[in-house]
Every structure is written in structure tokens, then in C-alpha cells.
Amino acid sequence: MAKAMLGRHVAHLAARTQLTRLGATCNILGHMSSTREAHTLLLVHDTKQIHAGIGITEPLQRPDVTVEACVGRREANGPFIVGEALVQAVTQGEAVEIIYPITDGDVNNWDALEALWYHVLHDKLGVRPGNNAYYIMLALPSPVSRDVYEQGAKILFEKFNSPAITISEVPLLSAYALGVLTALVVDVGAEDSSAVAVSDCAVVPSGVVISKIGIVHCTWWLAYLLTQDARVMQALEQVAPGQTHAAAWSLAQQMADDHVVCVDTDITQTDDEDEGVLDVAAALVEGRERDVVKERERQKEAEAKSAASNTSGAVVVSFRGVEVPVGSVHKRFHEPLFRPAVLERVSLDIPTPRAVAQALQARRIGGEPMCLSIPDAVARATANVHPMERRLPLWENLILTGPMALTRGLIAELTRALSAYTTTESAEASQVVGDPQPWKPHHVRALRIPDYFANYKERMDLAPYLGATIFAKLVFGDLSGRNYITKRQYNEGGPSVAFALGSL
Length: 504
What we know:
Layout: H1 2-14, H2 22-29, H3 34-38, E1 40-45, E2 49-54, E3 65-68, E4 71-73, E5 80-81, H4 83-91, E6 97-99, E7 102-103, E8 106-107, H5 110-124, E9 135-140, H6 146-158, E10 164-169, H7 170-177, E11 183-188, E12 193-198, E13 203-211, H8 215-227, H9 230-239, H10 244-257, H11 275-284, H12 289-308, E14 315-319, E15 322-326, H13 335-338, H14 354-365, H15 374-383, H16 392-396, E16 398-401, H17 410-418, H18 425-430, H19 463-477, E17 485-486, H20 487-493, H21 496-502
Parallel strand pairs: 1-9, 9-10, 11-16
Antiparallel strand pairs: 1-2, 2-3, 4-5, 4-6, 7-8, 10-17, 11-12, 12-13, 14-15
Helix pairs in contact: 1-7, 1-19, 6-21, 7-19, 8-10, 9-10
């Protein structure tokens, strides 16, 4: 109950415009000493990156550092390599295993995560574990299990010697940043994506859906599309004679990292292999057969339009000293997120990335986590929320975060795709009398960071960090200590006190 009340307070404050003004902020939140504010450290994960920073005196400052949430290892039991050393090893073509410590919504390698935290705190932020005076706000992707609470606290207290910590879930912080109590938070990560229902300041456990589809799958698809362009292949032959497919993969990675991709909803393409996806949508959305037919016709018209203007919106990418003419395929980067079936068409003369192979396997055999499209993941997460009256606000408070949120046009495309799950007046009129569907959404609304958060306005990927800043001010500003635990409490009660914090 205390946690819910705190969440309401956070969201309420975030929604107030005056919170963004320095003087007013101090008046609203001011129960913390300047010393404690200066010695608060934020460590915020999404499914691909870690955003970290020191100091919350000013709640609108961006993270001090952002690093990829991965480590590398040259051999099975060898030391972890991180940061610039990892980038250099990959650039030089070394055989390095890339490890994402957090996948499928859970921590799968605590040693790797500890090495990553050490790099962020010690190497990037200059925190000395032997003399650590920083209160730590740790935010992790949902769901945060008891083991994650306890093990996370153990590392932060025993290895980094923090005087006090609090642990929260990233979807909650994203909702707080946008000033809402209820939301459906979508985070597209490196190897997987999540759709998480937040209702009344709490993550709904049944409303957490993980899909084995992410940025690496989009990159793999883009690499394939690049190999289908004769002009691209001619340019890549200059760069890597006889190894054009490997070069296409590297080019696709560069384009993804540099955000040389976008979504043009006017030329969204479909494939014959994807007809089954529409049939599934039609089965899920009762009474919408006529609308589904119209949607198929619209998509076929878009495909024809795209084919007639294949070079529309072409870009030139500088790659290893060569100018590569890339056609409109850079506008199709996102397609696996909406139609995972396209991955089955990819044929490249290079090893298939592990995450892609796992996604294809998941499509064949099912199981958990599934390889779902993002719209299907959203629909499942929402349908798993009970009672039904809690579902409608989720559709009206859609939040897209993570690195893919920077992709121009993606939010609009997601909103359009989710319209297949809404009802219309004509559909309702055609329903059998006495069989209403009062909890079926009429529309989908995607939220954006308000304009008054000027430093964050175009950075939906930083919404969790903004929420963490506001949340940490309230948590560590409460001298009663109800929503954080101290090193003394940990020493007396052990790791279980961390889980008790998450259960408030």
C-alpha cells in the first residue's frame, strides 16, 4: 500500500509543469539535504542499455553515461571485457562471445552483470567501492523476481559498499515520467522485447509478456534486404571482395547504431507469407472481418506503391571509406517487430546470430518466451489483466521506450497496427443484441514526454531515467526510510530485506 501511495505521489508530481522549474522543484520536493541529492546515483537498465548518472539536484539532467548492457568474453571461462575494450575487440574481428546479462526479462548471468556494473560505476562514474558514499537507485526490467531483488542488493551492498539502495521496475518509472498511474509499456531491446501492463502504480505480473524479437532481428532482416540490392552489393564488393554478405551484416549494424533507419507508413510492405498473421488478428478481434479485408487491401496498395518507387527516400551511407547507395530498404528495418515470419526468408552466407536462431526455433515449437509480434505482445499483455475494466486505460496510455523509440515513425506505425484490436461503431452495431463488448478499446493513444521536460522531449528512450530521477528524490528524501534500505538494515536482516522492500 505504501508503494502505491508513493507511486501516486510521483506520478502526480511528474504531471505538474512547475516540476520542471528549478526553484519550484526545490519547493515541491525539498526535504532532502543538498548533500544527499548530490550523492544519489541512478543505475537504470532497459533491455539494451544502461543509463547512469550521479546527482539529482536538478531532475531534468540527462544521464552522465549510457553504455550497452552487454559484456564480452574471448573464451568460456575467461575474463569479461567491457566498454571500449569490447568495442575494439569486435571491430578488429576477434572471436568474442557477446553476453547480455539480462534476457527474457530475467538476470541469466550475475557475474557478467556485476562486471558491467563495475565498469559503469568505477570506470565511468569514478565510484570507489572502498569509499562509496552514494545512495543507489537501481531500476531493472520487469518482472523483478525475489532472487533479483536479493542478489542485486547483495552485490550493491557487499561489492560496491553502498550506504543505501532502492530497487524499482523500469516500466513503473516510465509511467511516472509521463505522469500516469496506469500504462502499457513497450520496450524493444537488443535480443527481446517486452510489453508490460502497469495498473495503479504496480506492475501486473500476469500482464508481462516477453517476446524473442528485438533489434538484432531487425538488423539481420536489414542485412538480407541489403544483399538484394545490386547497387549495394557492387559497393560492398569494393570493401570486402568475396565477403559481401558479412559486409552487409556489418553495414546493417552500423545503420542501426547510427539510427539511419526510419518507418514510412505510406510504403509499409507485406508478404504472401504473412497472410497468416492477418488471419490470427481476425480471429482475435471478433466482429471485424470486414475491417480486416479492408486492411489487407490497403497494405497491398502500399506494397504496389513501394514497388513503383523502390528508390524513394534513398540514402547514401559512408561505410569503410566507400559511399554505399541504400534504397528505401532502410525504411523496412522495423518489419520483423510486426511480422516475425519475414525472418524465415533470410538467407545469408554467414552464421545466424544466436538470438535469431532462438526466435526461429520459438516460432516452430512455441513455448515461453514466444516469438510474438509487438502488437500481439501488447494484445496478450492487456488481455491478461483482470478485472476487465482495468484494460481500457492501458490502450489509452501506450508508452514506447528503449533505443527503438528513437526510430522516426515507429510509434505511429505501432499505433496504426494496434488499431486492428480496437472496435468500431459499425462493428458494435453489427453485434448480436445482448452480446456487448464494453471492454474492447475504441482507440489507441501513444504518450510522449511533455514539452516542458525540454531535455527529454524527443528522447522517449530516456523516459525510465527521467522517472528514476523523480522517484529517487521522493524515496531518498523520505527520512523515514520506508522505501529504501540501508547498509545497516542489510547487515542485520540479510538479502531478504531487499525483497521486503519490493513487496511494500
